Amino acid sequence: MILALSIRDFVLIDRLDIEPGSGFTALTGETGAGKSIILDALALTLGAPADRALIRAGAEQASVAAEFAALPGHPIWDVLAEHGFEASPDETLTLKRVVRASGPARAFINDQPVSAALLAEAGETLVEIHGQHAASALMRPSSHRKLLDLFAGNEALLDACAEAHAARLAALETRERLESETEEALRTREWLAGAVEELGALAPQAGEAGSLTETRTRLMQSERVTEAIAEAEEALADAEIETALSKASRAAERICRLPGFDGADHPLAHAARAAAEALERALIETGEAEAAIAALESLVEHDTSALESAEARLFALRAVARKHMVDPDLLPDVLETLQERLNLVEAGEDALIRARKAESAANAAWHAAAEKLTVARKAAACQLEKAIVKELAPLKLGRAVIRVSVTPLGDDGGAHGADRVEFDAETNPGAGFGPLRKIASGGELARVSLALKCALAEAGSAGTLIFDEADQGVGGAVAAAIGERLIRLGRTRQVFAITHSPQVAAAARSQWLVEKGRGKSGGTRLRGLDESDRQEEIARMLSGAEITEEARAAAGRLLEDV
C-alpha cells in the first residue's frame, strides 16, 4: 500500500504531501480542481511517459515520490531481484520520478537510479489504476491467465506443470545432443577406428613421455660421465694422495707421542692432536671418495640398444601427439575420449532410442499435467463468469457479458500449461465479443474493472487500487452499488476512488477534498475532511453551487447509512 505521496511543481501543484491510510478513500472536488492531476502524478512515478509539459510554470523540474510497504513474498521483490536490484522486505520502497526542463527525465527506486521500464514493471505490481484512460492488468490479455489461475487456486497444478515442462526440455536437449553426437561420430567412424587402433597399439601410459625424455638424456650422457670418472680416478692415482696423507698422519702422530705433548693441556699439544685427527679424517674421506667414484662407474649405462629403444618410443609418442595436437603425456586421455566416441557410434543407436523414449515419456507427462491445468481452468472460467454476472447487473451493466475464454496452444505451451486465457466482452447483445478495453467505453471501463476485481476477489498482487470516475454517467442505486463494492475491496486493500457521486463518497472510510488554491499562486491542494466537512462536501455534491439545508440533511442520511 501507499504510505506517502510527495508531489512537487507538477502541473498546477506547487507542493503536496499525502499520507493515506488503509481502506477506501474517496477523492472529491469540483470539476477542474485537479483530481486527475493527482492521479497523473502517481501514474508518472509508476512509469507513465514523462513530458516536460508536466512541469509547473516557472519551475525547473517536477518530481513525484511514492513510498510503499510490501510484505515478504510480494512479486515486487522478485521483479527487483531479477534486475539485480538489492532491496529487502524489511524496508519500504520509494519510487520517484523527476522531469527536468532541460535534460532527460530520471527514475529512482530507494534513491538508486533505474530505467523507466523497471519503474513501470515495479509499479505495475504495486498499484492498479482503473479508468477511462488507464490500462490496468485487467485490460491486458497477457495477464488474464495469471488472474484466472489465482482465482482458481491453481498453484499446485502450475508447479507440477512447470516441473514436467522442465523435464520435457531436459529430455529434448538430451535427445538432440545424442543425435548430434551420433551423427558426428558416424561421419568420422573410419577415422575414429583407425585412431583408436593406432593409439591402442601404442598403448601410451600416463607420464611416459616425460620418463622417456629423462632416460634418453641420461643414456646420451653416459660417455661423458665415463670420461669424467676416468679423469677423477687418474687424478687421484697420479697425485698419490692416500700415500701422502698416510705419511703426514704418521708424522703428526709422532709429535703427539713426544714427551710433554701426550695428553698435555697446552695450545701446542692441542694443535698437534687436531692436526693428527684432521689428517686421519682426510685419509678416511679419500678412501670414501675413491669408493664413491668406483660405485658411480658401476652404475653408468653404455646400452646403445636401450638408447635407441627409448628414442624410438619417444619419437613415436610425439608423432602421434602431433596428429592430435596435444602434449604426449595426454595421449592416454585422448585414447579414452576417442574410444568413448567410437563406442557411441557402436552403441549410439540404443542410447538414442532410449533418449527418444524418455523424451516421449516426458512429453506425455507434461501433456497430462497441462491437461489437468486446462480442466481446472475451464471449471474456474465458468465459476468466474457466473461471479462476474452477479457483479455486472447492479452496476448498470446487465446487458454486458464477460466471457473467459480458455483456448488450446497445443505443443506451443510451456511451464504455464497449454492454454491461452482471455477475458472478452460484449456490452450489447449481438454486437460481438471483443477485447475489454475496446468494447467498454467511458465510465463503463472503470465499472467493468470494478466488477472484475470484485469477482476475482483476492486475485492480483497490487495492494492499491485506484478507480477513476467509475460512477460516470450513473447515479442512485448504481452509485450505491459502486460504493458497496469499493467498501468490499477496501477491506483487504487500499482503495482510492475519484468520484462525483455523493453515494460513492459517503461510502468511503475517509474523504479528501481536492480544491484550487487561493491567492496569486493558485494551484491545487488537497485536505482531509472531518465528519462535518464531509457532510458539507457531500451536500455540495448533491445540490451544486448553493448548498441547501435539504442537501445537508440528505448528506447526513447518506453518511449514517454507510
Describe this structure as you would to a colleague.
By secondary structure, this protein is of the alpha/beta class. It has a domain at 187-344. Helices cover 56% and strands 16% of the residues. The chain has 18 helices and 15 strands. The protein has helices spanning 35-45, 75-82, 116-126, 144-152, 155-187, 189-202, 208-220, 222-239, 241-257, 267-299, 304-324, 331-392, 436-439, 443-456, 476-490, 502-507, 531-543, 549-561; strands at 2-10, 13-18, 24-28, 61-68, 93-100, 106-109, 112-114, 127-131, 401-408, 419-426, 434-435, 464-468, 494-498, 510-516, 524-528. The strands form three sheets. Strands 2-1-4-5-6-7 form a six-stranded antiparallel sheet, covered by helices on one side. It has a six-stranded mixed sheet with strand order 8-12-13-3-14-15, with helices on both faces. A three-stranded antiparallel sheet has the order 9-10-11. Helix 4 (144-152) packs across helix 12 (331-392), helix 6 (189-202) crosses helix 12 (331-392) and helix 7 (208-220) runs antiparallel to helix 11. The longest helix is centred in the middle third of the chain and has 62 residues, at 331-392. The two termini are 24 Å apart.
